[in-house]
Design a protein that fits this description.
By secondary structure, the chain is of the alpha/beta class. It is built from ten helices and ten strands. The chain has a single domain, classed as Zn peptidases (Aminopeptidase), CATH 3.40.630.10. A hairpin with a 2-residue loop joins strand 7 and strand 8. The N terminus is likely disordered.
């Protein structure tokens, strides 16, 4: 089965999937790239400058076993605040993974002695390999960062960062909005939940999601300003919205991230955001998308460290 059509052919329209339908969906998901080659090999190369934390292991049977890794500052100091980068919460969102690694490899050194860094570049490795949004149980990890969350990917990361909660200054969670959201992932969600699919509109450009319960306008404006020199910022649609949400300032919308179980609510940091890059735009390239993600992290952390921030 083609992964672009399989979800709509599984089960009975209007009826939520049960275990049999979820197994059929999983069987249709084929490995298309290598977490070991693309992520673990880079992490190993960075082990000379970071401490590598293996914070969990996912055993997905015949699909493989995946060590979950994070990079931690070697010059860790209990006198410094902590800042976090997460990528690949949705495994198909490629620039989130490679943007996090780009920041670690190129930019992290400028924060030595200023911030303790934790970088989890690929939270969902099974989904990374299959270029999908969900984990093997057809669960969205980015709705699972809460006590009753159903994704082990989220549960293990929550446990890993728990010792530092209360010390986080900033957290940037790296995502993409792709054309496949409309052709694959949102139709799959509708089929899984037994609901009709209602088409939406994909924003053309980069945008950010602020926390509705902890808005930080200056932080978001600083990131948008820096990223606008790398790739274009998404304009609002005819209703003044992006993905159905009102635009608060250029390229910025908001969600209640903690109540939704989003990764951006993981750390309880003062400054948090979710980035969204549009890699399918004819106005950008994969390299620019990776650069936009790394730039967003760097700009966000620099702003958070300002004395007046």
């Amino acid at each position: 089965m083609d992964s672009t059509t399989a979800p709509l052919s599984i089960g009975t329209p209007g009826v939520p999937w049960g275990p049999e339908e979820r197994r059929a969906w999983r069987a249709a998901q084929l490995k298309r790239r290598s977490y070991a080659d693309d992520v673990l090999a880079v992490v190993e190369r960075l082990a000379s400058t970071f401490e590598v934390l293996t914070y969990g292991r996912l055993d997905y049977g015949a699909d493989g076993t995946y060590p979950l890794v994070a990079l931690k500052s070697r010059a860790w100091s209990d006198t410094l605040p902590v800042a976090m980068v997460t990528g690949g919460v949705h495994g198909y969102e490629t620039s989130g993974v490679h943007g996090a690694l780009r920041f670690a490899e190129r930019d992290a050194g400028s924060f030595v002695g200023r911030l303790n860094l934790l970088i989890a570049p690929c939270v969902s490795p099974w989904a990374y390999e299959r270029i999908h949004r969900w984990n093997p149980d057809a669960v969205d990890p980015n709705r699972s960062f809460k006590p009753d969350g159903a994704a082990l990917e989220a549960t293990l990361l929550m446990a890993a960062v728990a010792p530092w909660r209360g010390r986080f200054l900033a957290h940037v969670d790296l995502h993409e909005t792709t054309d496949s959201d409309e052709t694959v992932f949102r139709p799959a969600l509708a089929a899984r939940d037994g609901k009709p699919f209602e088409p939406g509109e994909i924003p053309d450009g980069f945008y950010l999601v602020d926390d509705a319960e902890n808005r930080q306008p200056g932080f978001h404006e600083a990131i948008i300003d820096a990223v606008s020199r790398v790739t274009h910022i998404a304009p609002p649609d005819a209703r003044g919205c992006l993905i159905g949400e009102p635009v608060l300032s250029p390229g910025v919308i908001q969600y209640a991230v903690r109540s939704l179980g989003l990764c951006a609510g993981l750390t309880g940091a003062r400054f948090t955001t979710t980035t969204e890059v549009y890699p399918d735009s004819p106005r950008t390239t994969p390299a620019q998308c990776n650069e936009a993600q790394a730039t967003a992290v760097r700009a966000g952390f620099e702003y958070a460290l300002r004395p007046a921030a």
